[in-house]
Amino acid sequence: MRFQPRNANTAHRNEHTLYLAASGGGKSQALAQNTAIPGKGARVILWDASGDHPGLHFESRAKFIKALQKGISGGRGFRVAYAGSTVEDFEWWCEVCWSVLDGDHRTYLIAEELSQVCPSPAKATPCAAVLLNQSRKYGGIFHGTSQKPQEVAKTFYDQCEHKFIGRQKGEAMCKKMGREIGLQPEQIAALKELQFYHDSPKHEKPQLITLKYKKIQGVKWLI
User: Fold this and answer.
1) Structural domains of the chain sorted by starting position, each given as residue range(s) with its CATH number in brackets
2) pLDDT at residue 3 greater than cutoff 80
3) Alpha carbon 102 to chain centroid distance?
C-alpha cells in the first residue's frame, strides 16, 4: 500500500500526544482513558505488539492491510493493530498510516513503546518523521507511549503538543521531564502510580491528574 494522503486541511490542530512513565506508572492507562480519543466510531490504527489496547491485532502484514482496507471502505469506525517488532516494521506501519490518511476524517495513530523503534534519540526515522511532521493536515492524530523517555527521538517531543508525564526512574529522568514541561524535578519525583502531569497548550501550566485503574478489554488476536 503506497498511496498518498488526500484532502489536506490546514485547519486541523496539532493534537499529537506523548505518554511518558516508568514501567508500572500507568502510561497505557492514561492513553486508554484519554477522552480525546473517541470510544466509538473512530478510525484507529495501532502499533501494539503486546495487545495493550482493544482492536483486531495482526502479525501478518497482508492480513493487517486487508482489515484496514475493509475498515476504511466500510465508512465507519474501526480499530486495527499491527504487532510488529523491529524498526523496519515500524517504518512500514508509519508508511501505511500515512498512505490512508484523509483530511476529511480524523484518524488516531496509536503506538506503544516508542523507545523500541527509535534507533537514536536525535531524530525519528524517515517515515515516522513524515507522520509526525505532516499528518496533522490530513487528519492524523498521533498518540505514543514510552517507559524510557531518554531513548525516544527528539522529533516526538518537538511535534507532540500534549504530554502526559508520569512517574520516572531516577533523578536524571526527573530533571529531564521537569525541564520538558517546566516543573521542578521534585514535583516529578513525587508522582505515584497512575498520577500524571498533563502539559497542554490549553493550560497555563501542567495539570496534575490522578487516574483509577480500569481493565482494558476487547483485544482480539488474528495472527
Assistant:
1) 17-221 (3.40.50.300)
2) no
3) 18
How far apart CA 155 and CA 206 sit, in angstroms, is: 21
Task: For residue 158, give every residue at least 6 positions away whose Cβ sits within 8 Å of its Cβ, in sequence order, or none.
Answer: none
Q: Which among 90, 83, 173 is positioned nearest to 124, based on CA atoms?
A: 90
75 DSSP assignment = T
State the Cα–Cα distance between residues 163 and 13, nearest whole angstrom: 15
The answer to whether 80 and 56 have CB atoms below 8 angstroms apart is yes
Locate 1 and state its grid cell.
Answer: 500500500
What cell was used for 20?
Answer: 511518558
Q: How far apart are CA 82 and CA 57, in angstroms?
A: 6
Q: Is 60 exceeded by the pLDDT of residue 1? A: no
Q: What's the first-to-final CA gap in the chain, in angstroms?
A: 20
The answer to whether the CB of 154 falls within 8 A of the CB of 161 is no
- Give strand pairing partners of 164: 19, 198
- State the pairing for strand pair 219-221/43-47: unpaired
Is the pTM above the cut of 0.90? yes
